[in-house]
Design goal:
This is Cytochrome c-type biogenesis protein. This protein has 160 residues and is mostly helical. Among the domains are: 16-83, Helicase, Ruva Protein, domain 3 (Orthogonal Bundle); 89-119. It has seven helices and no strands. The longest helix is centred in the middle third of the chain and has 30 residues, at 92-121. The protein is rod-shaped, with a radius of gyration of 42 Å.
């Protein structure tokens, strides 16, 4: 029984004292873990009990020599990917990260095609000659009258 108490005390003392490098790593890990109660606040800045408990767990994991990925997996398994402020870009997360880029690329391609068609559509084929007189009898009459006046008002050649 006393051996169990001594080992528990040693484990508590070991997890409570971290080297400065380990403490900095624990703080960095804590800055990337979201408080489950607060909105978008890392556990290092939150003051509620759950955040304090999570930060204590982060320190214990760092003292145990676990990697950053293992610590994040531990908390993601316990609280879900919601707890990660920077979730991993894998699985359905890749689709969420890549969808805006794909939409932007597709929109650019559509815009390029529309602009390309518009500029190539400017060179229109020449319109066929249409006899305007067949469509507008009044215009035909005006042209005949102006042609006959031009002939009658033109100077006559002098006769020798």
């Amino acid at each position: 029984m006393s051996l169990l108490l001594v080992s528990a005390a040693l484990a508590g003392a070991a997890s409570g004292t971290l080297s400065p490098d380990q403490e900095a790593r624990a703080q960095a890990l804590g800055n990337n873990l979201r408080c489950p109660i607060c909105t978008g606040v890392p556990i290092t800045e939150s003051t509620n009990d759950i955040s304090r408990e999570m930060l204590r767990e982060v320190r214990e994991q760092v003292a145990a020599g676990r990697s950053n990925r293992e610590v994040y997996r531990f908390f993601a398994a316990r609280y879900g990917n919601f707890v990660l402020l920077d979730p991993p870009k894998e699985g359905s997360g890749v689709l969420l990260w890549g969808a805006p880029l794909l939409a932007l690329g597709a929109g650019g391609a559509v815009l390029w095609r529309v602009l390309r068609r518009r500029t190539s559509g400017r060179a229109r084929p020449p319109e066929p000659d249409i006899d305007e007189e067949a469509f507008d009898p009044f215009l035909a009459q005006v042209k005949r009258d102006t042609d006959s006046r031009a002939v009658s008002t033109s100077p006559r050649p002098e006769q020798p």
